[in-house]
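hey so i finally got around to running the thing on that chain from the lab meeting. sorry it took forever, my laptop kept dying and i had to restart like 3 times. anyway pasting the input first so we r on the same page abt which one it is
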Amino acid sequence: MSQKKQYIIGIDEAGRGPVIGPMVICAYAIEKEKELEIKKLGVKDSKLLSKRRREELYSKLIKLAADTKVKKVSPAEIDELRKSYSLNVIEQKIMLNLAKKISVKPIEIYIDAADVKEKRFGSVFETEFPQAKVISKHKADVLFPVVSAASIIAKVQRDKEIQKISKVTGIDFGSGYPADPKTIKFLRDLFKKQNKFPPYVRESWDTAKKIKKEFSNSKKLTDYIDSS
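ok and heres what got predicted. didnt touch it at all, straight out
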């Protein structure tokens, strides 16, 4: 009699912090006995791998997976959801939804926790998956190969979305993160020229709000001077 297959799920995101582009979340399921196989592939936190290496691993990980679910959360969706929820809660809800859509029943779920309180972030998974051991940890993409796999898949798919934006703009806008001067210059030039942000910008980010306010105040002052 063959032994019943056991499955584990790893969940992670790519693009939580940038002001440009979507956040991509992945739930990656694999047979427990294949965990060593993905470890041997050399999976690790996607940020520690080159773009080429991530893409090489991507196809191999997809083939080894029992199931994979991915959600691309657009800037417009993020902006709308942030009217009601924190980014941590948004991430938690989407991760849980993806895990519930996985076609196999897991015995273990590993989550890269966004909350400062790791257990609090994983508590909803414990409720929804009472049969599974839930491990919610910071740096889970470094600690657990199955989360590293989810991290790589999410990152590769987000990179593809960023490439689409780059083709549309024809401009190197840097990393897309608020701390990147190249990104800030790109956003300022863009808003100055169009007097609005395109759909690939997260307008609920303080970075975008400050730029809008800056040019709004500048316009009001110009209007005042011109009319006097």
